[in-house]
Amino acid sequence: MKARIPTFIAIFSTGLLVAGIASAQTQSQPMQQPATTSPTQSTSNVSVNNAGTNAGSSGANSATYNTAKGQVTVNSTMGSTPSTTSPPSFEQLANGKKYISKADANAYPPLANDFEYAAHNGNQVSKAQYERWVKDLN
After folding, report:
1. Which residue stretches belong to region Disordered (predicted)?
2. Torsion sign over Cα 16, 21, 22, 27
């Protein structure tokens, strides 16, 4: 008799858990019209509108938040990617030295972002390392 009670409790609690999950998934929130107000810290309801996009076009996503002071709409889009077609020469970045330091790399943001990879986790980038990095860049 004692072995049946823990089994019964486990089955019963699992059933309640499954019923709660099913109930939570069937509830829906109404979509709300966007309004333009200033952002606030507290939010109570959120509705999200996803605009359909074609490949190659920038899509817009927006979310409307109900706050104590009114509705707030947040719009989000993808930014443009920087062009990496013509990186500067090694000599231009090295400023007469035989290496590019992390401070020198800041003159070319793609190299600054990739500095540890280009330097193989070192403190400077040699001419050979820079040429390999440029080759991998394009």
Report:
1. 28-64
2. positive
Q: Which of 95, 30, 97, 93 is nearest to 64 (CA)?
A: 30
Domain range for residue 99?
90-137
The domain total for the chain is: 2
Residue whose C-alpha is closest to residue 59's, from 80, 47, 77, 42: 77
Whether 13 is covered by a domain: the verdict is: no
Enter the pTM of the model.
0.42
The identity of residue 94, as a single letter, is A
Q: pLDDT averaged over consecutive 10-residue blocks of the chain (138 residues)? A: 69 77 62 50 48 43 88 84 76 93 92 92 93 86
